[in-house]
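Hi R.,

Here's the chain you asked about this morning:
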Amino acid sequence: GHMGTLNGKESTMTGTKNESWPGDMWQNGGGATWLGGTYDPDTKLIYFGTGNPAPWNSHLRPGDNKWSSSRIAIDPENGEIKWGFQTTPHDGWDFDGVNEFVSFDMQKDGQTVKAGATADRNGFFYVLDRTNGKFISAVPFVKNISWAKGIDENGRPIYVDDNRPGNPAESADGKKGKSIFAVPSFLGGKNWMPIAFSQKTSMFYIPSNEWGMDIWNEPVTYKKGAAYLGAGFTIKPIFDDHIGSLKAIDPATGETKWEYKNKAPLWGGVMTTAGGLVFTGTPEGYLMAFDDETGEVLWKFNTGTGIVGSPITWEQDGEQWVAIVAGWGGAVPLWGGEVAKAVKDINQGGTVWAFKLPKQMAAN
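And the predicted structure, written out as tokens:
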């Protein structure tokens, strides 16, 4: 129902009013684009992900709640939505859909497909046709997903109805709906930290987390400037030996080629190099380099503080450099429940580290 503007004048409505929202809830129903978008010169489209619908209590807003928890493609010439793909229609777990959409070309049935991939907070890794948003495939990239049995041939989740938090209006006192344990947690199978694609291996490298949550719904009324949740939650690990998991996935087959397990949650981005390396950082403070084919740890350096930034690389005076901003913070210590207790002693820090790559490992 929201109206756009073009050249300073009112343009077209961004959707069909009340198509998938009851009453006037579309006016404050969330769906913000709180991560940056990407421009694709091949398709001449801008890709954005959108956030969760509000409130979290999905029983107050029946319907798909478009275009929340979605990937959308926008024509930069006029701001019109060219296509949309909703990863979690009627989101009831705060899974969002803001995670980055990465353009790449893929060989399928002897043809080159202009594809795009995204690792959603809901735990599924999606491949779409980036020219029109057509669904190609989806596979789980975290274990024990409980809210859906899988993704159907049209790209829609096959919901597990009993794993949707209950309606508080149906409880004895009307104050708290049925609590359920959902996997992944609302912090996601992957959160904001970007994945990376390697043109050398044609694989994606995903910084994922294996955790779940107790979640329940509560009554809520919209108040401007206040949190509009209508839910309570406690995040919990699901394995004793790790939460973080860096995975290499083949987008053509959905196969996980290798996995590196990390005790603490991974909250930093990933970078690949033409020289065959995969870089990421850990809350334990390590900047690590992996072999892109095998996952072997080739090098690591402890920065003395947790890492939630993304590595960068550049060439200077004929040599390749890699840098990372180290410093701990973000959503895990604030919202992480039982997981937050496990990382409470990590140094906060705040340092930029730069390294020269050995010539044999540099891009060629």
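Residues 166 and 178 are 4 Å apart (CA to CA).

Let me know if you need anything else.
M.
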